[in-house]
Amino acid sequence: MSLRTKVADQSFDLLLSQVLFVVFDKAWVLGPALCKLVLYVQIVTLASTTFILTAMSVDRYLAICHPLQRTCKPKAMIAVSWLSALVFATPQLFIFKQVSTDLHVYK
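^ thats the sequence. predicted structure below, dont judge the formating
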């Protein structure tokens, strides 16, 4: 597994909002901006991992089925994977919002 995939997996693990819910007794205390940011980063890291694994699969397919025709560059494929993840996760910034109730603050 590539280092970039490992970094994406680790950043996803570090930003699990479910862990923050448990730590703060199931109340979101980090505010509306971090509510959106945490969810956005979760989606970006999840999507980037998926896109990077897809890019690796395409690269392996091309290396096996068309060994003499190398047209894809690995760094470009990784960059496209991350940019695609950033773009596809953008709607999450507009969908989620913080809602307050009498007992707790939920996302």
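The longest helix spans residues 31-65.
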